[in-house]
Amino acid sequence: MKDLSQSIARLLQKAASNKDKDSISDWKNRNPQNERFLQNLETYWNSHADISRSSSTSEARQRLISRLSPISEKRHTKTFFLATKLQRIAAILILILTITGLSVYLSSEYIFPTQANWIEISTQAGQQSKVTLPDGSLVWLNSNTQLKYQMQRKTRKVNLSGEAYFEVYHAEKNPFVVETSEATIKVVGTKFNLSHYPESNITETSLLEGKIELTIDRNNKTAVLNPSEKAIYNAKDQTLQVLPSRVSNDISWKEGILSFENVPFVNFIQKLERFYAVEFQYDEKQFENKHYTGTLDNLSIQSVLDFINLTIPVNYEIDNKTIHLKSKQ
Asked: How far apart are CA 214 and CA 225, in angstroms?
């Protein structure tokens, strides 16, 4: 919020960099009310342009001189510089008031559209979707994911079943809460990935920016994550771990890339089923001690199977949307 406030202040003074302009443009696009606020702010600022500009122009000087009584040159010069100084102080005060108003607006709990009912969005196997919430937060939904959200004055609530990547709009007085059937995550403004599928015992969240607090509903275990960390909760044995994370790998699915690092074969196959909208049939006992590590970059399902065969020897048969696997070992 502080950085954005400073960017807008520089914009008002016509000293904004391209980075400032990009940041402001992104902020305006998140919420129509933000654009209206900026328009009003610019109107207010421009209405005081004669004060906020330097008063050393000849026209301003003549207006000032015409209001002064005939006095000596020495007295005139002293009075002129005193007036100039006062006008510059006034300009600084206007800027302070403008930024203060902006800061209050950016941290306000009343800037978001609200709705009492829950809104639901879902994706099917093989589908992905990008959603902009009413508060301007961005959410990317992975395959087989259901997202419900509700925006209120004091809280922003989201319910997730599946996997999603969040870029949460910063609003300190409006906490953003993500709930799953196992855990609750509280954030203010941050970027993170969360995965919790009903058929899996694992809840996993990775943090790219900011800070999040994960609470396990069943036993009240908590974990506070910093950037480049992930929390993994296993509902089967009720263990909660915080580990270093390559977050770029965890969110690469947004770009059609699947990254795996020592993932149990069963979990690996589940991700493939969701991503490619296929069904695997195989004997789990043949693969119970197998793990997969690798990156699948926008590959066809047949190419994926060929890659698997390089590290985990398998025979496979594709029957439309059903894939039969059998270990060679």
From this structure: 8
